[in-house]
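Same chain as my last thread, 352 residues:
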Amino acid sequence: MKSFAITSEELEGAFDEGMGFDGSSIKGFARIDESDMIAKPDPSTFQILPWRPKEKAVARMFCDVLNPDGTPYEGDPRYALRRNLQRLKEKGFTLYLGPELEFFYFEDEKGTKVLDEGGYFDLTTLDAGSDLRRETVLTLEELGIKVEYSHHEVAPSQHEIDLRYAEASVMADSVMTYRIVVKEIASKYGCFATFMPKPIFGQNGSGMHTHQSLFKGDRNAFFDPKDKYYLSDIAKKYIAGLRSPDPSCNPYLAFSVMLAAGLEGIEKNYELPEPVEKDIYHLTEEEKHQLGIKSLPGSLIEAIEIAEKSDVVRKALGDHIFNNFIENKKIEWDNYRIKIHPYEIERYLPIL
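reply #2:
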């Protein structure tokens, strides 16, 4: 999330003309020779921030990023999602999403010391995050973001707050707000919240299961009452095309790619495999091979190399975002690759 603050006196001008900023200072945006950008607030996203002092209220709005001539900037992730949703609209569909973001509470940002030893759905004094979750839910409701339920997750100090489904562009804004709220409330209580997918070795990581449905008007195009699993043919093909997100994602880009992948499944008639009613974590490699179960990439560089070859991802993100994203992820991998890992010191230093 990026932001800047303006006074109420500047608001009318912001609505009329937008506010200028230097795009070259934001990674992945513009080069130094084309740095002028306009941020134009979206009035439909106006909300008073509940955690700021009531006597001097502060509100927030999401902005669309524009070129100086007023055209949409192709590097704006919000615009990328809008472009994909327009493609869907032309097919007569609306996309609804209901993500389940998991996260951890730690004592501070310097380590992974947990607040509790609770487990899945625990409601005991072990769950030190109950008050934090409750206040987070109430704050989200104040911001107009509907919550279905919240609970302790499987790992110690791991939690989940599930958002009620909404139209995709609204939900992407809500996910950005959700993560800020979780962190703000944690900070208020003197602790730290993180959406890092795998902060603790040997414990469950944090996922972002995302309920998805395509509607035609008021009709759920994914529902078929006559099917064994109540799934329509369109739903099965859509599912067959999907990839998997996590709660650290950029929701505008993740939802864009998820939609594009699902539509690819529909357009190319992907076949949905039969469900595997077994615990796949206890299957041998041979058993998984026989069942046709493949694994997601095991490292960042594997994921980069697959994404780089994907026409689906490139089309969903657009050339500007796609090229910058791949370039920045390669830099991220290289920064990781050149580090000396503690495992290497523990394993090799005593014997070599």
